[in-house]
């Protein structure tokens, strides 16, 4: 993650995310990265921090999103991944847990639920005939209920679960998760599913970068104007 | 051997806030808001080259800081510099980390620093000239073994202090991979020493995942060993003049036999453990997950089959080079195995659970498990 620091799948996502938006992807930059990420997928179907580790929502998102950027999602077993992530939505709370047998947490509204748009896209690219054209493969309304009813702090901001205090991290990821749950697809296939009054509807977020889709487009267009930097000294 | 914060909002008496009882260190909470900014500031001034601190002061200050907030990376990094310059004994940092973990069992920076220190120690170990330094009494192998054991203890303690402690269990796996080199002995030792622990922590998914890791590593080990054995056999067949003496070939075969015989038994023991825990503690998803995966492994384990050694070498190579342990890979690549009684027993067990349990979650898990048995095992 930084010089002399820990190595895990998050850094692959950070690097892929930044490099793709700023147009600095060189052929050698990510040599072997996709294969390494694939090794982080384990018997549970999810992805751990490093190969051999327990499947975890945060790391799974980072791994899958990085592979989507590198166009190598097919290296994963998408079926077991789908089975794992859908099993993480809690049937009573409606929100998601980060790992099997753990408690629900608002931030996983993004890390876990955010996997379903990515999986939908990957499976669609493989020509899967069973995919819905209107909904993601998780209970979008139940997640919205959890976030809106349980994760809001009366003084503003959002949180992990009732009883916890608010912080910027949970505010960010609860809102991101809410956006994912409210918006299916884009363009002609866009389908809004909003719980409660229409004013609850947020702007859609980009499922890979988690910033507004227009911003992704603008960033990419801007940096495409510049040549990819070369590693040779001038 | 342990630190903690004593809730004490006001300094009532004019005395030191440090309390030491039976080797346990306590700090009264009122002083933290004075102490922490003070030492923090001192260290930052040093880092900004605005105020010099000598080595002893640095050691003291970082120690204080890290016991109050072990996620302060800069303090650990100062200590890294001291270790690299030879002023600080790395073993001290292992002890400091251990102490910090008694209060902050998840602290990511503490675990990360610990791995850095251990890496330094292994490097020292591999340089024979340094192996005779004063503080390294024992032979390198013995030393590594002791380090590994100590790490297992530290991980176990930390895992007990916080449920499903991802960082503690990751560290434990890392130590086995990089220090203990995943030998069969250490894998088996760990299986037996964690058995009691997981039985006392039936919802701790990380603990059970660790056992899956151990079992998977054993399976991989067995495949590699069988692979070597088969390769040797093939080489011997082609070149009789190169054939090893009967004794050593016999020993090799015996070793492989031992290891390949162990595995089905280990997997059966694991299933027994699962069954017992599921019966005793209804409604824990982790136990069912663990059961799923263990059964999957025992049904498909190549070591369970005498045909494993007859598998063509290419097939084995392909398997061991594919690091991803996905269920599809396993199903496609393994040779057919002899029928085990596993699935039948499992059906009986699940049906029994379904007819006798009163816990709603338990019933749900059992139903899902039964569906899985039918779909994946095709029986």
From TrEMBL, chain A:
Binds 1 zinc ion per subunit. Keywords: Metal-binding, Prenyltransferase, Repeat, Transferase, Zinc. It is an enzyme of class 2 (transferase). GO terms for cellular component: protein farnesyltransferase complex. Its EC number is 2.5.1.58. InterPro entries: FTB (IPR026872), PGGT1B-like (IPR045089), Prenyltrans (IPR001330), Terpenoid_cyclase/PrenylTrfase (IPR008930). It catalyses: L-cysteinyl-[protein] + (2E,6E)-farnesyl diphosphate = S-(2E,6E)-farnesyl-L-cysteinyl-[protein] + diphosphate. It comes from the Eukaryota. Residues 1-211 form the Prenyltransferase alpha-alpha toroid domain. Transmembrane segments: none annotated. Its cofactor is Zn(2+). GO terms for molecular function: protein farnesyltransferase activity; zinc ion binding. GO terms for biological process: prenylation. Pfam families: Prenyltrans (PF00432). Catalyzes the transfer of a farnesyl moiety from farnesyl diphosphate to a cysteine at the fourth position from the C-terminus of several proteins. The beta subunit is responsible for peptide-binding. Heterodimer of an alpha and a beta subunit. This is Protein farnesyltransferase subunit beta.
TrEMBL record, chain B:
GO terms for molecular function: protein prenyltransferase activity. It holds the Pfam family PPTA. Keywords: Prenyltransferase, Repeat, Transferase. One of its GO terms (cellular component) is cytoplasm. The keyword Repeat applies. The lineage of its organism: Eukaryota, Metazoa, Chordata, Craniata, Vertebrata. It comes from Machaerirhynchus nigripectus. This is PTAR1 protein. The keyword Transferase applies. Belongs to the protein prenyltransferase subunit alpha family.
């Amino acid at each position: 993650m930084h010089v002399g620091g820990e190595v895990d799948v998050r850094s692959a996502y950070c690097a892929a995310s930044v490099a793709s938006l700023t147009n600095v992807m060189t052929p050698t930059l990510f040599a072997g990265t996709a294969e390494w990420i694939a090794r982080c997928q384990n018997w549970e179907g999810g992805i751990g921090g490093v190969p051999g580790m327990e499947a975890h929502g945060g790391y799974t998102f980072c791994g899958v999103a990085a592979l989507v950027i590198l166009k190598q999602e097919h290296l994963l077993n998408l079926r077991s991944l789908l089975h794992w992530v859908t099993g993480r939505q809690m049937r009573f709370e409606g929100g998601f847990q980060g790992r099997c047998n753990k408690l629900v947490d608002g931030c996983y509204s993004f890390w876990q639920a955010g996997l379903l748009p990515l999986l939908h896209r990957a499976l669609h690219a493989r020509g899967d005939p069973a995919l819905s054209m209107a909904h993601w493969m998780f209970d979008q309304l139940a997640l919205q209920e959890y976030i809106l009813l349980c994760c809001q702090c009366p003084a503003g901001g959002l949180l992990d679960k009732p009883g916890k205090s608010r912080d910027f991290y949970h505010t960010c990821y609860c809102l991101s998760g809410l956006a994912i749950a409210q918006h299916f697809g884009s363009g002609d296939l866009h389908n809004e599913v909003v719980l409660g009054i229409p004013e609850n509807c947020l702007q859609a977020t980009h499922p890979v970068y988690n910033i507004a889709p227009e911003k992704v487009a603008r960033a990419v267009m801007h940096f495409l104007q510049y040549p990819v930097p070369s590693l040779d000294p001038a | 051997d342990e630190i903690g914060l004593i809730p004490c909002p006001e300094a009532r008496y004019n005395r030191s806030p440090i309390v030491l009882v039976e080797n346990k260190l306590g700090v009264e909470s009122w002083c933290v808001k004075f102490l922490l900014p003070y030492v923090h500031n001192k260290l930052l001034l040093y880092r900004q080259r605005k105020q010099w601190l000598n080595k002893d002061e640095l050691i003291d200050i970082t120690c204080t800081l890290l016991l109050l907030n072990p996620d302060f990376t800069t303090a650990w990094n100062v200590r890294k510099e001291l270790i690299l310059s030879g002023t600080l004994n790395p073993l001290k940092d292992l002890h400091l980390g251990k102490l910090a973990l008694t209060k902050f069992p998840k602290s990511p920076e503490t675990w990360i620093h610990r791995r850095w220190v251990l890496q330094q120690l292994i490097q020292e170990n591999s340089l024979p000239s340094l192996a005779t330094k004063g503080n390294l009494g024992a032979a390198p192998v013995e030393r590594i073994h002791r380090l590994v054991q100590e790490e297992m203890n530290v991980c176990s303690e930390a895992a007990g202090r916080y449920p499903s402690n991802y960082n503690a269990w990751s560290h434990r796996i890392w130590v086995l991979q990089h220090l203990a080199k995943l030998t069969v002995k250490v894998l088996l030792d760990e299986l037996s020493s964690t058995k009691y622990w997981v039985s006392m922590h039936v919802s701790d998914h990380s603990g059970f995942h660790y056992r899956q890791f151990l079992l998977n590593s054993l399976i991989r080990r067995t495949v590699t060993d069988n692979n070597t054995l088969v390769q040797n056999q093939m080489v011997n067949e082609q070149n009789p003049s190169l054939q090893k003496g009967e004794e050593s070939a016999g020993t090799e075969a015996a070793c492989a036999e031992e290891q390949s015989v162990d595995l089905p038994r280990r997997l059966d023991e694991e299933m027994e453990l699962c069954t017992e825990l599921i019966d005793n503690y209804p409604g824990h998803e982790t136990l069912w997950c663990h059961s799923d995966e263990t059964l999957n492994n025992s049904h498909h384990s190549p070591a369970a089959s005498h045909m494993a050694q007859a598998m063509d070498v290419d097939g084995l190579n392909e398997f061991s080079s594919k690091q991803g342990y996905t269920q599809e890979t396993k199903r496609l690549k393994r040779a057919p195995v002899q029928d085990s009684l596993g699935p039948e027993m499992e059906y009986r067990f699940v049906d029994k659970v379904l007819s006798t349990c009163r816990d709603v979650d338990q019933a749900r898990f059992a139903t899902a498990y039964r569906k899985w048995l039918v779909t994946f095992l095709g029986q």
